[in-house]
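worker-3 :: picked S-(Hydroxymethyl)mycothiol dehydrogenase
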Amino acid sequence: MPHKVKAVISRAKDAPVEVVNIIVPDPGPGEVIVDVLTAGVCHTDLHYKLGGIGNDYPYLLGHESTAVVSQIGENVTNVAVGDRVILNWRAVCGQCRACAKGQAQYCFNTANATQKMTLEDGTELSPALGIGSFAEKTLVAAGQCTKVDEEADAAAVGLLGCGVMAGIGAAINTGEVKRGESVAVIGCGGVGVAAIAGAKLAGATTIIAVDLNPEKLETAKQLGATHTIDSSKGDPVEAIKELTGGFGADVVIDAVGRPETYKQAFYARDLAGRVVLVGVPTPEMKLELPLLDVFGHGGSLKSSWYGDCLPSRDFPMLVEQYKQGNLDLDAFVTERIKLDEIEAAFDKMHEGTVLRSVVEL
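worker-3 :: tokens ->
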């Protein structure tokens, strides 16, 4: 029978979020109900609240989570009741043209639950990124569940569900950082410092963090940066070149997503180096570069979607790296909060005083 649980919704554009009762239906074919253990407060949730993603209110917020499978529908074989899972928004179909080419990380037909969760009056909810995990229970497609080790701290590893995976994957998967290479990361928020941690994990030996905020630069050093650049005090392009023998970095990751920072990334790389855009631009932004400069630099210009991750491949590997002490996911958990503290967590996000607030249920 359907479940009535507590959850956090955004009812209208820029309105304060609310803790309400919602109805979660029994899982249908290919669907799973999970008991949510933790949920990170991500910028994407704030974008939903502010109307930056769509207008399909009310939204059931939350998506960056660890959970336990409590019910499964027909034809579910990848998980069983009692499994500890990280939720993901890339449930690959295995049949589209990307999957057929062996590039499932670009799947064009990722799955979500078919049924809708609702308010008590029957109003249908739009779950953030097809997940909606600021809730005691949520309904997802079975492919959105990736089984992981139960011994790992749920609050830490759940962050692989979005922002931390985006940053680590930008370095390892998209940027293809190799041992001994130099990497510069522009923007040291949660995704940027995750890219720094990813570069360290990949074996980069020169890792340069660029930001305007000294506190963020200090956090970047804790997570693997070998050098820091305060871009308010000079040209970061020249500073990156100075730290790389005058050539520029092998890989430059733009974790901000603005035309200005992208140009810095473009000109701060070595000839034939790689630029990775993982910061998300807004629709009105335009980029202008001399085409001759694009031609003359060679290399590659890449965008990183969700760190080009494949959850079934990447989540277990990164959890194991965390358990072995090679990846400090604990450092990303700034505070542990309750469902009714999410609005305050959004304020702290605006202030830049947290890497991640994590809801524990």
